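Re: duplicated header lines in exported structure tokens

Our pipeline writes sequence and tokens for each protein into one text file. With two proteins the header for the second block appears twice in some exports. Here is an export where it did not happen, for reference. First protein block:
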Amino acid sequence: MEGVWLVSERQDISSYFADQTTNFKITDVCREFSTVRKVRGDGNCFYRAFSFAYLESAILDSRGLHGFIEMIKESSIALSCAGFDERSYKKHLSKVIAVLEQCQSDGSVGTLYRLFNQPCTSDSVVQYLRLITSAYLQSHADFFSNFVETSNFQAYCHQEVEVMAMECDHVDIQALSQALNVAIHIVSMEGDEQKLVDHIIPEGAEPSVHLLYQTSHYNIIYPRTQA
């Protein structure tokens, strides 16, 4: 699958940084995390990384995966309440449910890896998560509109959140986390400080998704305690 991957195989995290000049941040990441999965840099990296990482962890917990499947099935209600036409999401919802049920049936990360590297399937998962994010933002506009510089919050959701290949903002990440009740740990290598910045969303939660943020891009990382 080399050359066409959307989500890579796991690799040792030190090899991921092999062509970068070692600094305190790289040293800290390599000490705290063992492996990394690279995610294609196509503007959809957050949504693809988030969904793969969460489902990978959920496969190891059959009850958690079953609950997530039920939540996704019911998510169409939130989309309808936010004004989405069923025709705009029905196909994507069906593909997401098919992915989840196949992963539940096989109980295999290999199955998840294969499905997420099928562009049509993988992109449907990403698109549906974008729609869930947009619906949640619009349903809680009184709160989230305070953090977005726009005169038309609904237009922001339609143009900046729902459209494929549009990069994800912090407010979108917070909305998706709340919509799906999934805690996210983002390790940021940005900024001039000599140490990593850890973002836990929501604050104080126990995250099941760990992502590395570097040069406006997200990859999946795995804590050494989970190795």
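Second protein block, exported in the same file:
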Amino acid sequence: MEQNKEKIRHILQYYYDKGKNATHAANKICAVYGPDTVSISTAQRWFQRFRSGAEVVEDAPRSGRPVVENCDKIAELIERDRHSSTRSIGQELGMSHQTVLNHLKKLGLKKKLDVWVPHDLTQKNIFGRMDACESLLNRNKIDPFLKRMVTGDEKWITYDNVKRKRSWSKSGEAAQTVAKLGLTARKVLLCVWWDWQGIIHYELLSYGQTLNPRARMGGSIASTV
């Protein structure tokens, strides 16, 4: 059964007056009245209001949904999924897009671009890869299939003009300086195949040609682009 919101706020004020922090207060309340009675973010917002001098915890009598209740519900949705859009929140709570934006601003929330971090393998992933490697190594001891494997790859190589001209200069005079040309837009495709002993074949395709996908399975087939 959902507890009276004003009752919960009075309990929050009691813990605030005792000098406890918001997390401690929220955990104590949820331990008594249920795990979803009050969120830590809600407790933190009320503690902030108490610090600013607010003493009234009752909702003001007025029509419409209270602002505090709106903020609490929006905060709960954000905690559930931090990638939630303002329009999806508005549809779920029956609010306009601008109203959701206003409440998010009051909560001090704004969208930030996620930061890329290296992918961490789980223990299951790590052990799975170790098992696969060990299985392949054991198989290679019985049937050395790794020595029969041929690998191929390709690499774009840009033209680099390294040709220099000679100019006449007097004896003891420094040679003329000429700016080196940068890399050109022209490039060729280097295709290389190798086995366990090293490179077994390579070729440079003519300008304007790329490797046909069938060449990956054997043979050097070029296609004009």
